Amino acid sequence: MNNIQLESVLNELLSPHQIKDYCPNGLQVEGKSEVKKIITGVTACQALIDRAIAEQADALIVHHGFFWKGEPAEIRGMKYRRIKALIENGVNLYAYHLPLDVHPTLGNNAQLAELLDIEVLGGLEEGNPNSVAIYGQLAQPLSGEELAARLSITLHREPLHIGDNAPQEIKTVGWCTGGGQDFIELAANKGLDAFISGEISERTVHISRELGIHYFSAGHHATERYGIKSLGNYLAEKHNFDVKFIDIDNPV
Fold it and tell me: Where does a divalent metal cation 2 bind (predicted)?
């Protein structure tokens, strides 16, 4: 498939035009015109780029790409080395941030719900059909310790659990993969028993304790492996691409 056609396929699937984001979504760095082999991964770091080159990939599709709002515009240093490696080796770089978080089946939030056996009930941001944070109900109620254990086993990373003043039994859960910790107040105001995100801020601990809601910080990288992986699987199944997911370890 042509690299521009692949971008059209991805845009039609993920609808980035409907979502206000902090970075450009789509083809960020153009490479060779014909795409057959694709590497997927969470972040377009040098290690993943080097692996894509070693695998002789025509394209690299990631959740965290380049050109974030507020970052320096100059292409120098680390950014230069990354982009230079992509261009010299003809590797197309595609990145989809919030559109991949919110996709109802392939997205990070949807995939986390499937992994944790949570039924999705809706979005936490009222009036926003593309709510970045969502909520749902566990198939079976769990204690805070049991949900922490499930997260640890499922994501291969021990979560930080704040459970002071929270319900003994967790039935309803809100969540937002990655850096979604500030949606915890929406979850508490909705009367949910727990909230899960990837990152934690200092203030999040106090909010959890004072509003009486369980909070689980399960890792930004750990909670966002699965959307990009499912997107790659979709491209392999529906469009016959040779796709390989490569996980560059990140403890955060």
Answer: 64
Kindly state whether residue 237 falls inside one of the protein's structural domains.
no
- Phi, psi (degrees; rounded to nearest 5) at 75: -100, 95
Pair (81, 117) in one structural domain: no
How confident is the model over 22-47, as pLDDT tens digits?
Answer: 999 999 999 999 999 999 999 999 99
- Residue 146 assigned as binding residue: no
> pLDDT, tens digit, for every residue of 154-211?
999 999 999 999 999 999 999 999 999 999 999 999 999 999 999 999 999 999 999 9
pLDDT of 90: 98
* Residue 156 marked in a binding site: no
pLDDT of residue 75: 97
Phi-psi region of 95 (alpha: psi -120 to 50; beta: other; left: phi over 0): beta
Instruction: Look up the pTM and report it.
Output: 0.97
Q: Is 55 annotated as a binding residue?
A: no
Long-range contact set of residues 148-156: C-beta below 8 Å, sequence gap at least 24:
148/216, 150/116, 151/116, 151/196, 151/216, 151/218, 154/115, 154/116, 155/115, 155/218, 155/219, 155/222, 155/223, 155/225, 156/222
Same domain flag for 76 and 151: no
Range of the domain at 37: 3-96
To the question of whether residue 63 is assigned a binding role by annotation, the answer is yes
Specify if 242 maps to a domain.
Answer: no
Q: Report d(CA 157, CA 177) in Å as an integer.
A: 14
Token pair for residue 189? 């105001």
Is 64 known as a binding-site position?
yes
Kindly list the distances between the CA atom of residue 129 and the CA atoms of 10, 49, 102, 103, in Å, as whole numbers in the listed order.
20, 34, 10, 11
Q: Are residues 147 and 168 in the same domain?
A: yes
Answer whether residue 186 is part of any domain. Answer: yes
